[in-house]
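ugh ok so i messed up the first submission bc i forgot one of the chains. this is the corrected input, ALL of the components this time, i swear. 1114 residues overall. if the numbers dont match what u have on ur side tell me asap before i send this to the collaborators (the ones from the other lab, u know who)
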Amino acid sequence: MKQLVYLLFLLSLTTLSCTKEVEIDIPEYNEDIVIDGRIETNEPPFILISKSQNIYSPTDINTFINGFVSGANITVSDGTTTVVLEEFCSNNLPPGTESIVSNLLGVSEDELANFNICGYTSLDPSIFGQVGKTYSLKVELEDKTFTAQTQIKAPTPLTNLYWKVDGNLLDYGYAWATISDPPGQFDAYKWEVKRINLDSNGLTLDPNFIAPFSPVFNDDFFDGLTFDFFYDNPQGYEDDIIDETTGLYPKGDTLVIKFSKIDRDVYEFMEKKYVQIATSGNPFATPTNIPSNIIGGALGVWAGYSPTYDTLYCYP
Amino acid sequence: MKTTITLITFLFVFQILSQENSTLSGYLKDISSGEIIIGGKIYIPKLKKGTVTNTYGFYSLTVPRGNYLVEFRSFGMKTTKKNINLTTDVRLDLEIEKNLQNIEEVIVNANAEDNIKSTKLGQLKLDINEIKTLPAFMGEVDVIKTIQLLPGVSSASEGGQGFYVRGGGPDQNLVLLDEAVVYNAAHLFGFFSVFNADAVKNVNLIKGGMPANFGGRMSAVLEVNTNDGNKKKIGVKGGIGAISSRITIEGPLKKNKGSFIVSGRRTYLDLIMKAAIPDSSPFSGSSYYFYDLNLKLDYEVTKKDKIFFTSYYGKDDFSFGNINDNFQVDMPWGNGIASLRWNHIFSSKLFMNLNTTLSDYNFSFGSSQDEFRFSLNSGIRDYGAKIGFTYFPNARHKVKFGADYIYHTFTPVSVSAESGNTTFDTGLAQKLFSHESAIYFLDEFDINENIRLNGGLRYSTFQHVGPFTRYIKGDISTPDSTIDYGKREIIKFYHGLEPRISLRWLLPGKSSIKAGYSYNYQYVHLTSLSAVSLPTDIWYPTTDKAKPQRGWQASIGYFKNFLENRIEASIELYYKTMQNLIEYKEGALPGDNIQDNTDNLLVFGNGWSYGSEFFIKKRVGKFTGWFGYTWSKTERKFEDLNNGEPFPAKYDRRHDLSIVTSYKINNRWTISGSFIYATGNTLTLPTSWYVQNQSLLFNYGQRNSTRMAPYHRLDISATWYGKEYKDKIDIETGKIIKVKKKLRTNVAISIYNIYNRANPYFLYVDNDGDFLAGDFEITVKQVTLFPILPSVTWNFEF
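and heres the new structure output, hopefully the right one now
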């Protein structure tokens, strides 16, 4: 909310202010290992390992692809079963993992073969995510060891989902939901969405789930309460034309909501991550490094999710 | 008790020493308005002794009995000479005339050599008329922007009101409006100050060697004294400017006894926005404005008693609405200040000021969208009382002693949130209560003709008292918990001695060396999440967890006047240390203090600053102005920030230069210019990027390790004065005489940033494009706020 006000203030100054690209000396950076790992209910663990890049380093596709690191020894344990993960590449995926990797990389399943992005997983069902378990990750790479833990929390499904018109716009509205938060414990949630109605080419509008601007929240202020809340449509903000319908779902859309429970450390990571994205370029914001739950000096997160899925038809 | 006995003994000794002397005392006033003159000089050439009037216009000079020619002087006033037989104590309230002809020699003598003769180190005084001739940003004459042009004082950012003195933070400046504390001296997110120039008489900045009668802040004192009303006749003055208009009405409550003055100022940005945004627009509910109201009353109850009442109320109101989204934001904030003072003259040698003050600052934020409603309040309220005595035992001593007390109520955050019929649990409104008090004693003592010592001691205390709830965050094995303290329960008590000393050693050739040392405690902190001062910054007291800021400053300076005191010059060197400074923890976010104590989000560290300041000022003549240059270095060290390594403060600047000039072409035209150059501000930019789940994220390196481009800007202004006098035939003599016109006007034209320098306001790292599509790039962008900006203001007086 605070950022919004400052952004509005900045907007009011846009008639006077101007922005230009500048060359400036930025001090040398430390090359860090980045671990992007996840495990969801009934799905195998997936780990991508890369290295952080100098702020002025090239940002072409080759830099991106070559940034992924091979040769790590990785194990995942649920406390009783420990499994060694195998390295895989996006052009040679184990059968059945395409949609998961597609979601992870933001690349459509058809295009996966065009990229040679390598990660780590295991198709051993004994290590697939289960609610209530805590999963330990151990990564050995270049004489360094990184460890992390995450929990797959018991999910809290949404009790109701509906679409409601907004203000004077009769054909546009937000996606509303009702939640009954379990009392007496810390709960944190993540909202993701994809529109599954078909475009003019017969393809789904959104092949993958997308997170809105601030997709995570916790129950600090509503522990044990039942209430309604809404999320906007994250698509459209980067279009050339931003108008009063931007951020709203038109009547007729069909949405799949992925509503996940996350543990406190993953919430901390996600909260700071989305704050950093939202406040980029805001002079009133404090530079925020994103706190990792990985011990050993790596960036990134080892995240457990317990999603529930609901479909919402956007009709009054 | 011990202190009282020592004090009484002191005064008794002084009394005995002064039995062969007589005292000349009284008030010095302006004959045209009856207004008191601050800093006026009373001088006996035969004895080469003198004194100056205090903040209340009172003076007292004790000298050996005799018959003397006494001179009464003040800047811009005619020197008045009087033969006074001082065989006994004499009370003389004198009204002196304005120097209408502006004869340079007269002005040269007024207060000449003050800068070399006083013990004041790191002190600068500005007359409001001097400030009014300088270029004004968007036509608004601004006290704080002028202060920022002085050496040792830095501005926070382009157009900003926050000012940093000798490496101290903006919270370390004690800003006083007629002795009442002003907590947020800014309007419009910091672009304008709360001080309406029409209501201000003079401005005094103490940036080092703070005397013992001031306390509660570490770095500086900015004293703003407001105008008294005209005790002789009703007068009106005002101005119409580019963004605001103002009006001042003053006059006698009772002729020569008491007066009133009321000033008001309001911006029209809301009216402009209303005109620009049609009613049909979804944003038609958006607006912004601010206003100020100043009131001052003074009354001379008896020859020995005067009372003053000052009040200020100012408010900013920002609102934004989008009808389509049912979205509305309202954000008002403002200061309310009042002070009631009683001056009493016990004798020609003992003057008392008793003062009660109220200072209030409040910030609110409310928003609603559909069924959601959210509101937030924060603020601070002080009730204060001060008693101060000035004792003039003889011409060699000037003693001040007194006591201060403030009862603080801090509201760091109070939040409520609702969705439909569901009220969220946002915790209790947090309030913190504390008592701050101090006693002080100081003596300005002429050891001999050349050496003057100003030594003082201040003893300050601070009590954090209940009710209070301490939130204790648990870990995996321990749940969160709270400790509740009862009403008036003492949670923490701090106290400390604050020695202050400054010494002046007069040298031949109108020059002097001065040295000073001061130790200060500060019991309030300003917590800020952003790089610039904002109304959302939270004042927070010392608690059991947040210890008082404390530190010392040592400075030494060489002062010299040239060309018969027309030019003053000085070089000052300083070193200061600061302990128990605060910053937010890495990654703290707005709202994290809801259901928590703000100090749980803070980390604590130290700082130090050193530098040298050069100042040359031409005070009088057609051509006036100053040149100021500061070389300084300011660093911070926090165990929990930057891996415990020292880092530059965000306002660390190696070079700060300002040149301010004014040239009076004739009685109708004055032109002015100011140029500033400053090393770029520091900031923290990302040094590397990485990708997590399709998002490009940044990793920040060393704190404040990047510097923006240098800041420089030239502003100019021209002021045209309408004819102040008109010719009239004197009925009695038949001669043509000059009489003051009823309506006097001037037009001030300013051009800000005349060569349109694109100065950096802030930098950010931007990313654009699609990684997989191959058009992705990361760039550093600079935002510049103000291009060349002309403005015109019409001022009137009748």
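quick check: Chain B touches chain A through 87 residues (CB under 8 Å). that seems consistent at least. Confidence is low (pLDDT under 50) at residues 102-110 of chain B.
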